[in-house]
Amino acid sequence: MTHGKWIWKYRDFEFLQARRYLLSREERGAVVPAFFEIPTTAHSVRFRTKVTLDAPTEIRVAAEQTVSVVLDGVRLSAADCYAIPAGSHRLEVVVGNETGICALRVDGDVIHSDENWEADDYSNRFGRVGTSPLIGAESPNTYRLPERPVQPAADERTADDRVLDFGCDGMMHIALEHVTGSGRIFYGESREELYSDRCVIVDSFHPAPRIDFRPRGCRYVRLTGAADCTVTAYESYLPVTDRSSFAADAPWQAIYDVSKKTLALCTRMFYLDGIKRDHWYWAGDAYITALMDYYSLGNFEAVKRTLIALRGSEAVRMPINNIPGYSFYYLMMLHDYYLYSGDADFVARNYDFARSMLEFFAPVTDDTGFLAQSKSPGGWWWFIDWHDLEIGTYNCVMQLLYRQALASMGALA
Questions:
Q1: Which residue in 78, 83, 312, 373 has the most C-beta neighbors within 10 A?
Q2: Beta-bridge partners for 140
Q3: pTM (2 decimals)?
Q4: Is the dihedral of CA 156, 157, 160, 164 positive or negative?
């Protein structure tokens, strides 16, 4: 049998990953959820396709939690393998999932799941399914970024603690084996941070054969307490292809190398503002990061995932990141993506989402067409990066961003 692709309702995979990131920020043991809307996924999805067969065939269906197969309007009994007779048929598979996304894979010699299937969440608005080049045989619900072993550049022990230096920053997954006592792990970008009371990323451990900690952004790791155990480290990373080069005298070469390393570190499932604390995607950061990526990595998939996550759920209830200006950066970023990629299909699939985001701000404009902060509901963050100017009713920078967002959408129309 030919293995089909894992498919899902378009955008649900990105929303699942977004939820994991937006609920992963920690500060001194306390989880800090994102203070803007976290997108939701469908818990019941219908997948459908039409087939015409010259001869009978069979299919196998892979899904998690609940699944139901319907052929020509008749619900079939559960089976390991489903027989499909010759002729023209309407095949529908309904998947339910309480905790993850409704994902489906259909294997068969003739019939198998791919981008040509359609899906809906019982809203009677079927559309093409979502897929991802990141997903192979494993379910999208269990997907995590790959990891590679990392050896510390230094492993220093004293009577009180143990410090490992990995030589450069990374998203490090630390595993402890043969743990005979209790202790703590401090993560830092510098040695000084490891000993500071402002060190924000700290884990605790107790006796166990093996303990795996979630990946943490750091260069240094400090163990206190029962530190005489086996420490193994793995770096979590997004596989990308380096498509650029730069040669110059110092310090320009060093500046380029550090900038490119930072770009690679912050390019994960989405463009993050940093790997250490937030783990959140911000449209202002993403807009600049995408421009760097076009010339450095050409990682269009990361751009698309970030755009989908930024826009979020279909209904618009607040600005992106709860910041009006960041909603405009999203619209500008979508336009830039088209200019650099020529991917008209992605723009077409996301155009209505972008248009509704722009239309969301129409009630906040006055008779002049300017954005008027006084007309906005309470709770929005009227924020402009890297400035100390007071944002008034007619802040010039905000009007310029709004104007550019209008122009971007006009060009995509």
A1: 312
A2: none
A3: 0.94
A4: positive
Long-range interactions of 375-383: CB distance < 8 A, separation 24+: 376/324, 379/318, 379/322, 380/318, 380/319, 380/322, 380/323, 380/324, 381/319, 381/321, 381/322, 381/323, 382/323, 382/324, 382/325, 383/323, 383/325, 383/326
pLDDT digits (tens, 9 = 90+) for 275-321: 887 889 999 999 999 999 999 999 999 999 999 999 999 999 999 99
Which amino acid would we find at residue 274? G
Angle, vertex CA 153, rays to CA 148 and CA 157, nearest 5: 115
> 359 — phi, psi (to 5°)?
-65, -25
- pLDDT at residue 410 greater than cutoff 70: yes
| Residue range 73-132, pLDDT digits in tens | 999 999 999 999 999 999 999 999 999 999 999 999 999 999 999 999 999 999 999 999
Q: How far is 24 from 255, CA to CA, in rounded Å?
A: 30
Hunting for tokens 């989402």 — which residue is that?
Answer: 353
Query: What does the CA dihedral 186, 191, 195, 200 come to, rounded to 10 degrees?
Result: -50
Other beta carbons within 10 Å of 296: 21
DSSP 171-214: EEEEEEEEE-S-EEEEEESSHHHHTSTT--EEEEE-SEEEEEPP
Radius of gyration of the CA atoms of the chain, in A: 25
Nearest C-alpha neighbor of 187 from the set 168, 172, 208, 177? 172
pLDDT surpassing 90 at residue 382: no
